[in-house]
Specification:
The chain is mainly β and 114 residues long. 0% of the residues lie in helices and 55% in strands.
């Protein structure tokens, strides 16, 4: 059974940076399609970043500020977030495409506040 676990969430001031990680277990299973959703308070879950063989996609709201990348050696996914804004607050969930379906982690909370 594939499991994903996020880490790295926390409280950061506007304009600050944060790096999220998503580990995949077991480490013997990997995928080239992974990404991040964001669940902001009172809003629908939003796909904000995806990295795949055909390239990377980002939501307009994070384009130029966030970068998602897969570390094949560690079998993990990261999300580097710079220039954070209050509207970036939410639960960040990673996903990976395994065996024909998207599998999600439970999420990590990011709060952007002064």
């Amino acid at each position: 059974q594939v499991q994903l676990m996020e880490s790295g969430g926390g409280v950061v001031q506007p304009g600050g940076s944060l790096r999220l990680s998503c580990s995949v277990s077991p480490r013997t299973i990997s995928t080239t399609t992974m990404g991040w959703y964001r669940q902001a308070p009172g809003l629908q879950r939003e796909l904000i970043a995806r990295t795949a063989d055909w390239g990377d996609d980002y939501a307009d709201s994070v384009k130029g500020r966030f970068i998602a990348s897969i570390d094949t050696a560690k079998n993990s996914l990261s999300l580097q977030m710079d220039g954070l804004k209050s509207e970036d607050t939410g639960v960040y969930l990673c996903f990976g495409h395994f065996f024909g379906q998207d599998i999600f982690g439970e999420g990590t909370l990011v709060t952007v506040s002064s």
